[in-house]
Amino acid sequence: MAALGLSLPIAALAAPAQAAPSSCPTPMLGRYAVMGMGVQSGKERNTPTAHVLEERWLAGGKLQGTVVERLGRSERQATYSGTARMAAGCVLQLERTLPWGRERSEVVLDGKGRPLYSLNRNTGSVITSRWLPMAPGTCQAADLNGLVLSSQVGLTWRNGGWSPNAVVQREQWRDGAVRGLALSSYGGVGETASYSGQLKLDPASCWGSLSETDAKGVGYNYRALLVKGRSGARGYFYLQRDPDDLTAGWLVRD
Predict the structure, then answer these.
(1) Mapping DSSP to helix (H, G, I), strand (E, B) and coil, where does residue 187 land?
(2) What is residue 45's predicted lDDT score, i.e. its pLDDT?
(3) Lower CB count within 10 Å: N or C terminus of the chain?
């Protein structure tokens, strides 16, 4: 992951009593985009889940963020706060206070103190996430202009259960409008389809709503988070909002 010059190392991210060994990288302040998928166990069955977060690491071991999450066929979103502290083994422990409860994760850092991957530590959760740094400031739809490519996997609700799907996409963006080609397999049935759509960003934000329609007239809806870089967007994370399709993707700007 290339450095963006957007984060500053701080010795105070962890509380003094939890100071990291001198051999551990110092966690970096900054803004991060996070995407994760996995399974949450319930009373009688496992439920697939996925999320996209925009999280800020602040001085004094504090966190602030926004999360959009799918849990099975339902969706929820919220702002949150939390704390971070360094633990043994150079693992950064995060605790987020959400409207539906506390969420605990452990993060591994690269040699410069930037988060790369994390694991949810709540009982009953099997969820991993990947992290990308974001440059400061708000986003514009034109930040995505150009070629965007992706590969992702997800799940589709059919006949009372979830079946796997996979999609590879090639997109051309211009000022919030997208035209693309999707190579897909839903439950083992392959398809190639063209599509078009429109991204509408929230005011003064890098979050937006993405609506797409394929050549057969089928609509798809996503919550998107542009990953702001030093020159335009590096790409975007998205989370599908249609209840019968649970997909999270990282779409990379060429």
Answers:
(1) coil
(2) 83
(3) C
Question: Is the pLDDT assigned to residue 3 strictly greater than 50?
Answer: no
Considering the domain architecture, whether residues 91 and 153 belong to the same structural domain is answered as: no
**Mean pLDDT, the chain, as a whole number?**
91
Q: For residues 90 and 156, state if they share a domain.
A: no
Q: Which residues make Cβ contacts (< 8 Å) with residue 142, sequence separation at least 6?
A: 174, 175, 176, 232
pLDDT at 78: 98
Distance of CA 213 to the CA centre of its chain: 23
DSSP-derived secondary structure for 48-81: EEEEEEEEEEEGGGEEEEEEEEEETTEEEEEEEE
Q: pLDDT tens digits for 208-235?
A: 999 999 999 999 999 999 999 998 999 9
Amino acid letter for position 118: S
CATH number for the domain that contains residue 152: 2.40.128
CA 208 – CA 232 distance, rounded (Å)? 16
Look-up of token digits 């962890």: 14
Cα separation, 227 vs 139, in Å, equals 9
Paired tokens of 130: 């990947």
DSSP state of 159: T
The pairing of strands 74-87 and 91-98 is antiparallel
* Secondary structure (3-state) at 99: coil
* Position 1 in a domain: no
Please provide residue 104's backbone torsions phi and psi, each rounded to the nearest 5 degrees: -115, 130
pLDDT of residue 162: 95
pLDDT of residue 18: 45
Using the 3D structure, point to which of 96, 112, 134 is the last residue of a domain. Answer: 134
